[in-house]
Design a protein that fits this description.
Helix 3 packs antiparallel against helix 7 and helix 4 crosses helix 6. The strands form eleven sheets. A seven-stranded mixed beta sheet has the order 3-2-1-4-5-9-6. Strands 29-28-30-31-38-37-35 form a seven-stranded mixed beta sheet, with helices on both faces. Strands 20-26-25-22-23 form a five-stranded mixed beta sheet, with no helix packed on it. With 755 residues, the protein is α/β, with parallel strands linked by helices.
């Protein structure tokens, strides 16, 4: 069957198809060239090279991304981990639409910044396992050319992120192993997965590689005759989609690139290199057979225009039927074959007498795709689970294809909405619970929540509630967990189950497990703290957990500079990037410190802080000097091991260590992801270093937290990742954070309360 566009279009659809397919018609049974870019994280893809080969060379272009970016920061909201992974997945899919590529995710978990490939391989199941998953995709998709931004270098100043290194190393290994019949031969039992030898593997060189000779320079800045813009324009538009990483600020730099330089790492052909083409002089690829989903994702076949058809549901459970309706005059021909594949497997044969409605059955064994944060990790591609293709019944020409706006969901889904971790106290503990009821047969839900001690799995308390299903199928209910006094400090698990009645299509209850902590922290009476938030609300929530009065400081409050009723002000991570009022009125804060205030500044990045970088809000200007009271320049050093040993440089009787909480070495236990990042690289002697720490085999870094006396007040800069520890309810981090907030009252009061 040929995937070609219909040559005889009806007047209704003709203009739409022409616009959608300009310059991208699929007019051949097999591609002549397949390229594959390998990247560790969303936004690591080489968008300009992908866009060039897709649009200038008409290549089949795949973007293979090892993780979904769960371990990064979020510049548009408080979501982290799996929830952030879902956001970044959607951003990557939107970016791919600009590039004309298809994204394949290998679904390795982004555990945060790493300096060593060995750590990445250890976290991902071993070097061979990682390589095998990449080999599988190479054997399935059959690329001629592999290229990546990620080097195999694992030592020295210019080594990359450890996860980047793992990509470079596994790419180097997989290049040859994909053609080795002895390497994971079980893969070859799957249809379409065959031994395959890519022809070339390239490493892209960046400005720090200027002293390295290059083999190929791809002219990505050449003009695309179809648009009149350089091919890099599509890459710039794609980069803007990565909003959670703030990548839009680099879009114009990408647009201005003229060429991308590459070094040849491996080759399996005698064909001579072309100095401007990664695939120069290679033979035509006659083996690759991109599937329909590729044609849709790459924009090579048009979807039906909006309004042509409708579904009576946007989510269905396995075994459920949905109603499809359509307007026959809007279809491109009178006699059609409408093929649905994936979670729905059926074919409709349409003629002039066919009514505009049909029933589609979701397969009983269909895998859920919703909620995305949970189910996205079970597949390589992230498109909706039902694909349609519309063919002319007479000619068998493909007229349109796309995805039905239908997700597959479990009958019930329950989650405890207390964050990733919950803090428990004696007495009533409010547990917000959300149930999504996807099965229309369920009329009421029985909810159960139980608290068990991890040490011996003893159930401490449980509670139950029966809830009627509302019309929207969403239930928000707060369950009260009444815990006894004297509950021992430690780790606990809160388990929530939801069971539908009458019996839903699966009788097993939906379950969610939430880690919980029991601990106590002292705070002084009357402490009032101002918070300058960025895009995260963890600091305010943590202060509320401690029973500390938190005052959110908006731009007007910063401009007025009336902070005299506050003892401490804490500035959130990256606030100097996203709060123009903070940048404009930072001097008011420093004046307040001079008068006796205590200012705590969480980590910022180099380009939003250091004066040599462009001001993100004022065109043509550099960042102002003097965000800190004394000179302080940020660097890129970090300590990535969350369990890295910490040497405390403070005297044992310093208030930060003794009041209101007596701290010991256990405050550093149980940290998650990392110790800190963007440590200051140079700073005035007025700053006192508080801690030293380092990753294995590295020199100690002693600038993670700096304290300075400024007039009658104090200024503390900390590059430690407090917000991740507070989200995880690390007991030690909470106690230390309380001491950080309480410093100005340390000499004024010895009393406090326990929270």
């Amino acid at each position: 069957m040929k995937h070609v566009l219909l040559r005889r279009l009806s007047a209704t659809l003709g203009l739409v198809l022409t616009l959608l397919c300009a310059g991208s018609a699929w007019a051949q049974e097999t591609p002549s060239l397949v390229v594959m870019n390998l990247a560790a994280h969303p936004d690591d893809e080489d968008g300009s090279t992908l866009a060039y080969y897709r649009k200038a060379k008409d290549a089949v272009a795949y973007s293979v991304i090892f993780t979904r970016g769960e371990g990064g920061q979020n510049e548009i909201g408080p979501e982290l981990y799996e929830a952030l992974g879902a956001i970044r997945t959607d951003e990557t899919e939107r970016a791919a639409r600009h590039l004309g590529t298809q994204v394949q995710f290998l679904n390795y978990y982004d555990f945060g910044y790493s300096k060593e490939a060995a750590e990445a391989f250890e976290m991902w199941g071993g070097r061979e396992a990682v390589t095998a998953r990449l080999v599988y995709l190479i054997r399935k998709l059959k690329p001629d050319v592999l290229f990546t931004n990620h080097d195999t270098v694992t030592v020295g100043e210019r080594r990359q992120h450890g996860q980047h290194q793992a990509v470079g190393i596994s790419a180097y290994d997989a290049f040859a192993l994909a053609a080795d019949p002895a390497f994971h031969p079980e893969q070859l039992a799957e249809p379409g997965v065959d031994l395959w030898q890519p022809r070339r593997l390239f490493l892209r060189l960046w400005f720090w590689n200027e002293d390295v000779p290059h083999d190929v320079a791809v002219p990505v800045g050449a003009l695309n005759p179809a648009t009149g813009e350089p091919y890099t324009a599509a890459a710039a538009d794609a980069l803007i989609e990565h909003a959670s990483q703030g990548m839009g600020q680099w879009a114009e730099r990408i647009r201005a690139i003229e060429e991308n330089r590459f070094k040849l790492l491996r080759t399996a052909t005698d064909a001579p290199l072309d100095p401007s083409d990664l695939a120069g002089n290679l033979a035509t690829n006659d083996a690759a057979t991109p599937d329909l989903s590729y044609l849709i994702d790459a924009g090579r076949v048009p979807a039906l225009p909006e309004g042509t058809y409708a579904l009576d549901a946007d989510a269905a459970v396995p075994g459920q039927s949905v109603r499809l309706t359509w307007e026959a005059p809007k279809l491109p021909a009178r006699r059609l074959r409408w093929r649905f594949t994936g979670a729905v497997d059926t074919t409709l044969h349409l003629s002039d007498t066919t009514p505009g409605r049909a029933t589609l059955l979701v397969a009983a064994g269909a895998k859920p795709s919703e909620p995305k944060a949970v189910y996205q990790y079970e597949r390589f591609t992230n498109h909706p689970p039902v694909t349609y293709a519309l063919y002319d019944a007479a000619t068998d020409d493909l007229l349109a294809a796309g995805y039905l706006p239908l997700e597959v969901a479990p009958p019930l889904f329950v989650e405890a909405n207390a964050g990733d971790v919950m803090r428990l106290r004696p007495g009533k503990n409010a547990l917000p619970v959300r149930v999504q009821v996807f099965d229309p047969a369920a009329k009421r839900i029985t909810l159960n929540a139980a608290v068990s001690r991890d040490a011996d799995r003893t159930v401490i308390v449980s509670t139950q509630a029966d809830v009627e299903v509302n019309g929207e199928g969403e239930i928000d209910r707060t369950l009260d967990l009444d815990l006894p006094a004297g509950l021992a400090p430690g780790t606990y698990t809160v388990s929530v189950t939801a069971l539908g009645a009458p019996a839903t299509r699966t009788p097993q209850p939906a379950v969610d497990h939430l880690p919980a902590r029991v601990f106590s922290v002292k705070v002084p009476e009357g402490l009032r703290v101002g918070v300058v938030e960025s895009y995260d609300n963890t600091l305010s929530q943590a202060l509320g957990e401690l029973g500390i009065k938190a005052v959110l400081l908006d731009s007007l409050a910063l401009a007025e500079g009336s902070f005299n009723d506050l003892q401490t002000i804490v500035i959130d991570i990256r606030a100097y990037l996203v709060r123009p009022g903070l940048r404009a009125h930072n001097d008011r804060l420093l004046d307040w410190v001079q008068g006796g205030g205590h200012l705590v500044v969480n980590y910022q990045k180099t380009f939003e802080w250091n004066p040599q970088y462009d001001d993100p809000f004022v065109a043509g200007q550099k960042n102002p000097e003097g965000f800190a009271p004394y000179p302080l320049t940020l660097g890129r050093d970090r300590v990535t091991r969350e369990d890295a040993p910490v040497k405390v440089l403070l005297p044992p009787d310093h208030p930060l260590l003794t009041w209101p909480n007596n701290l010991d070495a256990t405050v550093w236990d149980g940290w998650v992801q990392e110790r800190g990042l963007y440590f200051p690289e140079s700073y005035d002697e007025q700053y006192q270093e508080l801690f030293c720490m380092s990753d294995p085999a590295e020199a100690p870094l002693c600038s993670s937290t700096l304290l300075a006396e400024v007039g009658a007040g104090t200024y503390l800069y900390t590059a430690l990742v407090w917000y991740r520890q507070l989200k995880a309810f690390s007991p030690g981090a909470y106690a230390f954070f309380a001491n950080l907030m309480s410093l100005p009252l340390a000499d004024a009061s010895a009393s406090g309360r326990t929270n």
